[in-house]
Specification:
By secondary structure, the protein is mainly beta. The chain contains no helices and eleven strands. The N and C termini lie far apart (40 Å).
């Protein structure tokens, strides 16, 4: 059974940083593509970043390019999303995704 548990969200001021983590189990983590998606309040889901099965970033949402970085630690079965230079419009629920599975999410709120 695939299990994904996100953490690391919180309330930060514009310009701040956060690192989201996704602890994964139930599949071959080191050889599986994964992604982060987000859902801003009142809006639909959007893919933020994708990491290939080989561990290389293959996609970033245009709005986050240069500010967010997706990575993983195969020894810890953990996917990360480093969020820098945060903007109010980054406020959203952030989810870790693999295949058709998605975690419960972690809330990121950017506010002054």
């Amino acid at each position: 059974e695939v299990t994904l548990v996100e953490s690391g969200g919180g309330l930060v001021q514009p310009g701040g940083s956060l690192r989201l983590s996704c602890a994964a189990s139930g599949f071959s983590f080191s050889s599986t593509a994964m992604s982060w998606v987000r859902q801003p309040p009142g809006k639909g889901l959007e893919t933020v970043a994708i990491l290939s099965s080989r561990g290389s970033p293959t996609y970033y949402l245009e709005a986050v390019k240069g500010r967010f970085t997706i990575s993983r630690d195969d020894a810890k079965n953990t996917l990360y999303l480093q969020l820098n230079s945060l903007k109010i419009e980054d406020t959203a629920m952030y989810y870790c995704v693999v295949g058709q599975s998605r975690g419960k999410g972690t809330t990121v709120t950017i506010s002054s």
